Amino acid sequence: MKAGYNYHGNEPMYSGITGEELSADIYIGVVYYQRLRHMVNDKYQVRTTGPVVPTTGQPIKGRKKGGGIRVGEMERDALLAHGTAFLLQDRLLNCSDYTKSWICRSCGSFLSVQPTVSPFVGKKKQIST
């Protein structure tokens, strides 16, 4: 009889409403718990904007560097299933590697300059003229 409990774990229980003893055998035991090593304050990571890789425009990796959090296929599918299309657009495009590009209307190639400043055309059209 450690800690005053029955060896088999069966203790008389009383109804919280009427105060009568319950007729069923109810097992009671000591619950053991311990503090987890990983605490939330040590693990959480948030990011709206921050440093990016210059070549790709995507967020850098790593919590210590203020990097981005990876949203994989499973996370993307879960967000889509919950109807959060605007959140997906914001996270996967606007906050990640959103860039504006100028494209030639006739050949579809990328332009290296803005057409409002100088009216250059795509590479395929320059070759043919």
From TrEMBL:
Keywords: DNA-directed RNA polymerase, Nucleotidyltransferase, Transcription, Transferase. It comes from Verticillium longisporum. This is DNA-directed RNA polymerase. One of its GO terms (molecular function) is DNA-directed RNA polymerase activity. GO terms for biological process: DNA-templated transcription. The keyword Nucleotidyltransferase applies. Coiled coil: none annotated. Residues 2-65 form the DNA-directed RNA polymerase subunit 2 hybrid-binding domain. Belongs to the RNA polymerase beta chain family. It is an enzyme of class 2 (transferase). The lineage of its organism: Eukaryota, Fungi, Dikarya, Ascomycota, Pezizomycotina. GO terms for cellular component: DNA-directed RNA polymerase complex. Residues 67-114 form the RNA polymerase Rpb2 domain. Its EC number is 2.7.7.6. It holds the Pfam family RNA_pol_Rpb2_7.
